[in-house]
Amino acid sequence: MRADELPKADLVLEGHFDKDHERRYAHVPFEVPSGRRQLHIRYAYSDQIDSDPLITGGNTLDIGLFDERGIAASSAGFRGWSGSNKMELTIDETWATPPYRKGRIGAGTWHVLLGPYKVGPRGCDWKVEVWFDPGLRSPWRMSGAVRRVDPDPLPAAREGWLRGDLHCHTLYSDGDSWPQEMLIAGSEAGLDFLGVTDHNNVGHQLAYGPGGDGLPIVLPGVEVTTYGGHWNAWGTDRWWEFREPEAQAVERTMRAAAESGAVVSICHPKPFGPPWEYAVDGGFHAVEVWNGPWAQLNAASLAYWEELLRRGVRRAAVGGSDTHYLHRSGVPAGHLDALGTPTTWVDAGDRPTVATILAALRDGRSFVSASPRGPQLYLEPDRGRAGRVALEVRNGAGARLELITAARSPQRLVVDSSAWDATFDVPAGAGFARAQLVSERGDVVALSNPVWADRL
Ligand SMILES: [Zn+2]
């Protein structure tokens, strides 16, 4: 039996959302009888439009599923969330539509989670159909062996420094590839680590495995996707509450994730990121100041971060490509994804492990550059000389270096060789110093984390 040959559904749930339901999740209960081994769910709704924030005037309805173990914030009953990306899903004891979790179909009250992300002027009429034990076979074939192409040799980094990408998506949310394909693409790009961040799911983590052994080291993570902004957590194996789009609740959840040992970062705080709408200073370690190619409005994310720094809110800068598509053809130029665009470089010391990479991200012992080829930009206290910072730039010849502090206008110098260094005074009242490299076109091609004046 195929999903398009199914007979009449066993159960039909229907309802309507008005404009005032927009961005408020609803939990729709239904009863699962005992002895079932498979559940198939299909949904449909009126005036359907794409989830792209630029498109308005109709409805976008997200879906997720909780089993009989309940809908609480950390419930083991969370079986998955697929946004508006999939119109039907199967959960079987032995397989499931990604990102949903396979396993026992327990008897009792389950809940379909419906999220009216957008509600148009006519409201949203929705229908959810449920089949019990329809006998569907898995149409999902995880690709196994994929031939790996070794990258051309990359410019050497400093001893102990690793290059990685912190943000990508697979078939376990709205990407087009399997985790194994993403890992291989990462190794072809020359990455040493990969932060794996499907939306509101952790099912991808198991499929990735730990990486390493010639592949990028996997930082297990999740992109917590709320209706007022997204945040990444790396170093966590569980899902985090995404249903409450109020600043206080979001900050509370980020704090809980941070306290559990995860590194927490605000994602793409820029127009169409989608943006970050929560006015909170606490609960996160980092800001994704650079998401995808620089020209895609990342100046707004940089300005958001710099405003925090100027207020003395000490947060690290990170970057991520937000890669979704490794295969899709017909993607317009400029929208093609490339792992490592940008690349985040971290000082992992003498042991490249998940723990040392997370520690470097948390502490801001890192910088971000346009690609795995660099340029490389190392900024640190000038050893033995108080009140000064030392800079080293590799493979940045021709770019303009800007040294920025809270206190005075930026100092600018042209980098005139591929191995370049300099030192700068940072007066006690300067707050912080950070550096960035800017191309002739005016794009940032590398940026450092800040050195704080009170630690010089
Ligand atoms: Zn996002």
Specify the CATH architecture of the largest domain: Alpha-Beta Barrel
The ordered H/E elements are EEEEEEEEEHEHEEHEEHEEHEEEEEEEEE
The percent range for strand residues is 25-35%
State Rg.
Answer: 23 Å
In round numbers, the mean pLDDT is 93
Number of strands: 25
Which kinds of small molecule does this entry bind, naming each only once?
zinc ion
Query: What would the CATH topology of the largest domain be?
Result: TIM Barrel
DSSP helix fraction: 10-25%
Kindly name the structural category: mainly beta
The H-level CATH homologous superfamily of the largest domain, spelled out, is: Metal-dependent hydrolases
Number of separate helices = 5
Key terms:
456 residues; mainly beta; Jelly Rolls; TIM Barrel; Immunoglobulin-like; 3 domains; four-stranded antiparallel sheet; 5 helices; elongated; binds zinc ion
Description:
The model has no long low-confidence stretch (mean pLDDT 93). This protein has helices spanning 179-188, 203-208, 247-259, 298-310, 354-363; strands at residues 11-17, 26-32, 38-45, 60-66, 78-83, 88-92, 108-118, 124-132, 161-165, 193-196, 217-226, 229-234, 263-266, 286-291, 316-320, 343-347, 366-369, 376-381, 388-394, 400-405, 411-414, 419-425, 432-438, 444-448, 451-452. The chain folds into 3 domains: 3-132, Jelly Rolls, CATH 2.60.120; 161-374, Alpha-Beta Barrel (TIM Barrel), CATH 3.20.20; 375-456, Immunoglobulins (Immunoglobulin-like), CATH 2.60.40.10. The termini are far apart. By secondary structure, the protein is mainly beta. Strands 9, 10, 11, 12, 13, 14, 15, 16, 17, 20, 21, 23, 24 and 25 form a 14-stranded mixed sheet that branches. The relative contact order is 0.10. Residues 223, 230, 267-268 line the site of zinc ion. The site of zinc ion has 4 residues, from loops.
